[in-house]
Design brief:
single chain, about 300 residues, alpha/beta, Rossmann fold, Alpha-Beta Plaits, 2 domains, 6-stranded mixed sheet, 4-stranded antiparallel sheet, 11 helices, 14 strands, binds adenosine-5'-triphosphate, transport, ATP-binding, nucleotide-binding, P-loop_NTPase, ABC-2 type transport system ATP-binding protein
């Protein structure tokens, strides 16, 4: 039987009167990148803080490699690295000084500190910046330092809260590469409210909304829920709405969006773009613009709630 890396049982958390997390159970027993997906306020940070032992839950339990986080936090935390939403960087230290401090905080044996720092710097591609004061690094490199501190003690699990937040597109791509690299020999849990972030980086998804777990499965399984079902089209010729509904195979409903723009609802949007383009051409509707609309997290949540 595979050893459980993370086991969360019946976890609930309440801030004064409001429940932020309600009765969540989940288990991870295979390495990989797990996306914790949910809208703003869904309860992701609360979950991550509890898993990392930064916040004490109201009810339920968290086990890291079989160790109860509440009963034995020091031992459990040896197996976990955490990069919170606000990276805990000491801006006036050099990268090396900061990682030395983190090694101390993480109980890395003193004779292994230099090796641990070299390894984390190398892994995160920042060896050449070891003498640089953190304040003088770009956002993307500061995030790399944040990831280096999360892996300095070689934990089995690394938890990253919104790791690409505030980075420019190039930095986002680089940080995603780095996350995939560090996940080769450990479990990474990454929280985000951005669906494409999960699709680009993760293999598995756990989705929470309003404090409860609404989906648990692979990214491929999740994609079955987000097959887009609407197409936005702009036609120069202004055909009657009824012609759009009856003329294009599979259209259930047509919404008029103003001017010559329409939203077409399909039961199954597979090949919808091709169908709209083909019919527009044969009927002389003069296609101006055509877009497949992606489901929002809210729409996916509504869909999942029906299951
Ligand atoms: N310290 C706190 N005191 C009171 N309520 C809080 C506190 N922290 C979070 N909450 C509330 O708990 C709920 C869950 O918040 P949480 O930060 O865990 O969500 P999230 O999914 O991480 O959202 P975001 O993506 O915006 O960070 C929200 O309604 C939030 O307002």
């Amino acid at each position: 039987m595979e050893e459980s890396i993370l086991k969360v049982e019946r976890l609930s958390h309440r801030y004064s009167v409001q429940w932020a997390v309600r009765d969540i159970s989940l288990e991870i027993s295979k390495n990989g990148i797990y996306g914790l997906l949910g809208s703003n306020g869904a309860g992701k940070s609360t979950m991550m803080n509890i898993i990392c032992g930064v916040l004490k839950q109201t009810e339920g339990s968290v086990h890291i490699k079989g160790i109860n986080m509440r009963e034995n936090p020091v031992a459990a935390k040896r197996h976990i690295g955490f990069l919170p939403q606000q990276p805990p960087l000491q801006m006036d230290l050099t990268v090396e000084e900061y990682l030395e401090y983190c090694s101390f905080m993480r109980d890395v044996p003193s004779k292994e500190v230099n090796k641990a720092i070299d390894k984390a710097l190398d892994r995160c591609g920042i060896s050449h910046f070891r003498k640089r004061v953190i304040h003088n690094l770009s956002g993307g490199y500061q995030q790399r330092v944040g990831i280096a501190q999360a892996i300095i003690h070689e934990p089995a699990i690394v938890v990253l809260d919104e790791p690409t937040n505030g980075l420019d597109p190039n930095q986002i791509v680089e940080v995603r590469h780095l996350i995939k690299d560090i996940a080769q020999d450990r479990t990474v849990i990454l929280s985000t409210h951005i669906l494409p972030e999960v699709q680009a980086t993760c293999e598995y998804i756990r989705m929470i909304e309003q404090g409860t777990l609404v989906f648990s499965g692979s990214v491929d399984e999740f994609d079955n829920y987000i097959v887009p079902s609407t197409v936005e089209v702009s036609l120069i010729a202004r055909p009657p709405v009824e012609d759009l509904r009856s003329g294009i195979p599979g259209v259930l409903q047509v919404e008029e969006l103003g001017g010559t723009r329409y939203r077409l609802h399909f039961a199954d949007a597979q090949e919808a773009l091709e169908r709209v383009a083909e019919v527009s051409a044969t009927r002389g509707w003069r296609l101006n613009e055509l877009n497949m609309e992606k489901s929002s997290l809210d729409a996916i949540f509504a869909e999942l709630s029906k299951k």
